[in-house]
Amino acid sequence: MTYFRISEAARLIGVSDDTIRRWATDGLLEASIDESGRQVVSGASLAQRTLELAPPRDDDEPVRRSARNRFTGIVTAVERSGIVAQVELQCGPNRVVSLMTAEALDELGIEIGSRATAIVKATTVIIETAR
Predict the structure, then answer these.
(1) Of all helices (H) and strands (E), which one includes residue 83?
(2) Which one in 27, 41, 65, 98 has a CA-CA gap of 20 to 30 Å to 113?
(3) Which PROSITE patterns match (predicted)?
(4) Cα(8)–Cα(2) distance, integer angstroms
């Protein structure tokens, strides 16, 4: 089983170290002490807690999409160059960059500080892990 130190667990899901410690104390995360004497939480319990905190899917939404990867965040940068624009979102710990037409930028009313959702549909998704 995979275990994470408190700070690493917090960084993975975008919460504070204190939040992870509180969840462990409250029994919301499976915690133990590693061979170095540090508190760790199980990866399985962290994954379960993350799913519990995920916003519910809105099945009443008027539009259905085949794309499942949705990242909601705040617009942190907008660059316009002629007929194209680049928009950067900070979605929790993740930075998402989108290229679009300048016309789409205007139609969507995107500006720094706006809330936006990036919807990603990719034919290739690469996953890596540490050795």
Answers:
(1) none
(2) 65
(3) MOP
(4) 12
Is there a single domain that holds both residue 75 and residue 49?
Answer: no
What value does the mean pLDDT take over residues 33-57? 88
Domain check: are 7 and 38 in the same one?
A: yes
- Per DSSP, the three-state class of 107 is helix
Q: Which amino acid is at 9?
A: A
Q: What are 72's strand-pairing partners?
A: 117
Q: What is the per-residue pLDDT across 57-90, written as a single tens digit (0 to 9) for each? A: 666 667 666 667 888 888 999 999 999 999 999 9
User: Strand, coil or helix: what is 80?
Assistant: strand
Q: Average pLDDT of 14-30? A: 94
Q: Which of 16, 18, 23 is nearest to 49 (CA)?
A: 23
Count up the domains in the chain and report the number: 2
Nearest to 105 by CA among 125, 122, 85: 85
